[in-house]
Amino acid sequence: LDEDTPFTPQPEKAGRVAIDHSVLGAKGICGVVIRPTLIYGRGIGVAATSIQLPKLIDIARKAGVPGHVGPGLNIWSNVHIADVVDLFLLALDKAEPGSLFYAENGEASFKSVAQSIGRMLGLGERTKSWTIGEAVDVLGPSAYLSFGSNSRVRGKRSRALGWAPKQVTLADEIERGVYAEMHGRS
């Protein structure tokens, strides 16, 4: 999908999309919506990292093997937090009211994410395939949507605005960046 692709959101995401439409259609304000994909990297907020990757890392450490839902071929677009910040700043400066932007800088399968986690933890390339039931037990009730689905988008409008992501890839950040620093081999 890109910013111009019509779609019907999953019921779990319908509320979020309704809020986006309210912002985009609001009168008297310069409403802009930025939809980041899976965010990775070091943040400067309350938490230094996002939620999904540390959860997968902690589970892999405890189990001795990183896991993924099914064969792990599901793919998610992703973006470094510093690149998201750059897009927000650019949108504040240049975006037209009612603009919608996707923030993405590549994509990865969850199996490749699990393999990066395994290498970072010193566990090697081996991964474990979870059934959806096992994934729900390990990751919680939203496992099928948060870890077992595809979420692939392209930031066509973001790049047309002049956004040029420049941070390291997701695999590099896991294996040699903030995740290795905070969660790496003990």
Structural descriptors:
three-stranded mixed beta sheet; globular; two-stranded parallel sheet; single chain; alpha/beta; 186 residues
Folded structure, characterized:
The protein has 186 residues and is α/β, with parallel strands linked by helices. The chain is built from nine helices and seven strands; from the N terminus they run αββαββαββαβααααα. It has helices at residues 14-25, 52-63, 81-94, 110-121, 132-139, 143-146, 156-160, 170-176, 178-183; strands at residues 32-36, 38-40, 67-69, 75-80, 99-103, 107-109, 128-130. Strands 2-4-6 form a three-stranded mixed β-sheet. The longest helix has 14 residues, at 81-94. The protein is globular, with a radius of gyration of 17 Å. The relative contact order is 0.22.
The major beta sheet can be summarized as: 3 strands, mixed
Strand content: 15-25%
What oligomeric state best describes the polypeptide chains here?
A: single chain
Global geometry: globular
Helix/sheet category = alpha/beta
**Overall pLDDT metric:** 94
Number of helices: 9
Radius of gyration, whole Å = 17 Å
List the secondary-structure elements in sequence, H or E. HEEHEEHEEHEHHHHH
Would you identify the regions where 5 or more consecutive residues have pLDDT less than 50?
none
Describe the strand arrangement of the main beta sheet, using strand numbers: 2-4-6
Helix content: 40-55%
Terminal CA distance:
40 Å
Instruction: Please count the beta strands (DSSP E, at least 2 residues each).
Output: 7
